[in-house]
Amino acid sequence: xxxxxxxxxxxxxxxxxxxxxxxxxxxxxxxxxxxxxxxxxxxxxxxxxxxxxxxxxxxxxxxxxxxxxxxxxxxxxxxxxxxxxxxxxxxxxxx
Length: 95
What we know:
This protein is mainly α. The protein has one domain. It is 59% helix and 0% strand. The longest helix has 29 residues. It is elongated, with a radius of gyration of 19 Å.
């Protein structure tokens, strides 16, 4: 009204949700690396890892339900290891 820019609460909350997803995914990845590289893992660490994975899953499903779109072109769901969407080079095409 009167030339003021309207605040879109949904976009603000979607951005906050995506930030939370990135943060929890990073924590879960760090805990997973710790579990993979440790000889003896305590039950507390395993419980923390499971809890982080459940938090991530819940927030991911909430983002899907809300049809949230990322502001950046980064792939927050699969991380850097995902090669499904990458194009094969010429050597891989020629089989």
